[in-house]
Amino acid sequence: MIAVATLMRFSPIKFVGSLRRSYALRGMLVANAFGALVPVCRSGIRPTGVSRYALAIPFVLLLTPMQNVLADNIVFEDPGKFLMVEGGSCGQGGASEVLRLPGSMQIPDDYASGMATVVLNGWRLGYLGDDHKLQSARAIISEPRLNGRSLQWEAVGVLHDDAGFLDLSEAIDDPYEFCYRYLAFAWDRADIHALLGPQSRGTIDNDDDNQPRSTTALAAGSFSVQNPWSKAIVNGGAIHRPGREGRAAILPQGFIAAWGNANDVNEDAFDGLGAYLGGFDGSDNHLLQIAYNRGASATFESLNDNQAKASGLHVSWDSYAILKDNKTRRDFTVDEYTVALGGRDIEVIDPPFSILPREDNEGVVDATGCIGGSDDVLTKEIVVDDIAFEYAVPMLTGWELNYACEEDENVLQMGMWIHDVSFEKDPNTGMGRLRYSVSSQLRDADLNPPHQSRHKVSILGLRNGGPYRVIGSGGPGGGPGGPGLAPVK
Question: pTM (2 decimals)?
Answer without folding.
Answer: 0.78
